Amino acid sequence: MTMRVPEEPILAAPVEVLPVAGSFEPKWDGFRVLLSRAADGAVDLRSRRGTRLVPAFGDIAAAAERDLPRGVVLDGEVVVWHGGRLAFDLLQRRMHRTAASAAREARAYPANLVAFDLLGEDDQDLMALPYAQRRARLEAFFAAHRLGPPWVLCPATTDRAEAELWMRDWAPAGIEGLVVKDPGQRYRPGQRGWRKYRVRDTTEVLVGAVAGSLARPTTALFGRFDDAGVLRFVGRSTVLDSRARAVLAGRVRAAAPDHPWHGRSFSAAWGSRERHPMIPVAPDVVAEVAVDAAFERGAWRHPIRVLRLREDLAPGDVPKFGQGPAPAAG
User: Fold this and answer.
1) Which CATH number fits domain 200-329: 2.40.50.140, 2.60.40.1730, 3.40.50.300, 3.10.310.10?
2) Is the fold of 11-192 the same as that of 200-329?
3) What's the pTM value of the predicted model, to 2 decimals?
4) DSSP H or E stretch at residue 151
5) How far is the C-alpha of 28 from the C-alpha of 175, rounded, in Å?
6) What is the spatial distance between Cα 166 and Cα 307, in angstroms, rounded to a whole number?
7) Which residues contact 325 (CB under 8 A, 6 or more apart)?
8) Contact 287, 222 (CB under 8 A)
9) Burial 308-318, CB ≥16 within 10 A → b, else e
10) How many CA atoms lie within 13 A of 269 on its CB side?
């Protein structure tokens, strides 16, 4: 069996109910990647859609040249830890940058690769093997090569109760749920052969300001009214994707002079001293967002992911400042 690198990884189908049996793994908030080191020593790192990621994650590529043998293919997730949790926005900051800029980001916020499948070893294709055998070989691979950071062996268990504890205990660190795999299943590139169960906390907020411009917002700043009717800041979004930018640009309008956020700025990253201007907007756009448990003094410390705009809700339907989300699993 000559080693081959699939064009895309196996995917996971969402489920509303956590399966009773299987191999359970944490669901990571990062970039899904296929990493390979060919027989000639060349390292390649590609996204699930085939985008070459070596320029953005040169630190991972350099570590592969240093630590990994030739003829290996890993399936995993590139993540960045910052402040005790996964920081997806710091991953996004690596994309579409110059090599020098990406290298600066790597020095400031090093990446890790969480490996959860071994698709090739010793230049042999392992994808036809059952998952349980591939998992055993992955564990042996980590042990044989004494791999440590930036390499992380993804935890796995067949104990459903233990997996449920992971969901509860690791959620504040940014673990989104669980991925469930059939121990007897072969690796099927491009097919939804795995299952994913996501734990979500969703709530509503008001768009109070944007960064960028009204025509092309890059980040949304969220607020809620307090008991006195004053709009209070509750958090900022992750970097908006092109779809969210287009939708938001069609809805936001410049704020009136009495908006309380005129003249304020926000930090580009949590804990950063670098400040950026915000453009206050009329607080009449309601967004449904996904939030985590890091909720203190009425605000979320970590970036918030926009799920959709709620055209059916009015500002008065949004919870008051200081109220957290009502969690919903699934």
Assistant:
1) 2.40.50.140
2) no
3) 0.65
4) strand 151-153
5) 5
6) 24
7) 201, 202, 203, 291, 295
8) yes
9) ebbeeeebeeb
10) 13
What does the domain layout of the chain look like in residue ranges? Answer: 11-192, 200-329
Query: What are the structure tokens assigned to 114, written together?
Result: 């969480």
Beta bridge partners of 124: 121
Per-residue model confidence (pLDDT) at position 102: 87
Phi-psi region of 167 (alpha: psi -120 to 50; beta: other; left: phi over 0): alpha
Show the tokens assigned to 316: 């008065």
Q: Name the CA radius of gyration of the chain, rounded.
A: 22
At 54 the pLDDT is 93
Q: How far is CA 255 from CA 168, 283, 285, in A?
A: 40, 8, 12
Termini Cα distance of the chain: 40
Fold of 11-192: D-amino Acid Aminotransferase; Chain A, domain 1 (3.30.470)
Structure-token match 């939804």, residue found: 192
- Residue ranges of the chain with per-residue pLDDT less than 50: 270-272, 326-330
- CB of 215 closer than 8 Å to CB of 249: yes
For 42, phi and psi rounded to 5 degrees? Answer: -70, 135
Distance CA 3, CA 286 (A): 50
pLDDT tens sequence across 198-208: 776 788 999 99
Predicted pLDDT at 330:
40
DSSP 217-273: EEEEEEEEE-TTS-EEEEEEBSPP-HHHHHHHHTT--BPPTT-TTTT-EEESSTT--
C-alpha distances in angstroms, 130 versus 137, 200, 237?
Answer: 11, 31, 40
